[in-house]
Amino acid sequence: MYLVHLDTLPMQARFDACQKISQLAWDTYEQIVPVHGLVAVKVAWDRKEDFMSSPCYPAGCRCEFLGG
User: Do residues 6 and 61 lie in contact, with contact meaning Cβ atoms separated by under 8 Å?
Assistant: First the structure.
């Protein structure tokens, strides 16, 4: 499980990144804050390929490994 911080991206790019990630990830959970909108996405990653080197990882975004 990873937490990808999307706050460095413009709002439409955040939604686009979530859509792109969800095409390869086992599951995604959008983190929405009422005042700021979509700020991050939790990614359930079950592929052998490393998530941070995958083509769906949004460049320039901070990512934390949450375990799992």
Answer: yes
On whether the CB atoms of residues 42 and 3 are closer than 8 A, the answer is: yes
Judging by DSSP bridges, how do beta strands 2-5 and 37-44 pair with one another?
Answer: antiparallel
DSSP assigned state of 51: G
As given in the structure block, the two tokens for residue 27 are 């599951």
Environment class of 9 (CB within 10 Å of its CB; exposed 0-12, middle 13-18, buried 19+): middle
Question: Rounded mean pLDDT of the chain?
Answer: 96
In sequence order, what are the residues at sequence separation of 6 or more whose Cβ sits closer than 8 angstroms to the Cβ of residue 57?
4, 21, 51, 63
pLDDT of 49 above 80: yes
Residues 6+ away with beta carbon under 8 Å from 11: 37, 38
Q: pTM score, two decimals?
A: 0.92
Identify whether the C-beta of residue 66 lies closer than 8 Å to the C-beta of residue 8.
Answer: no
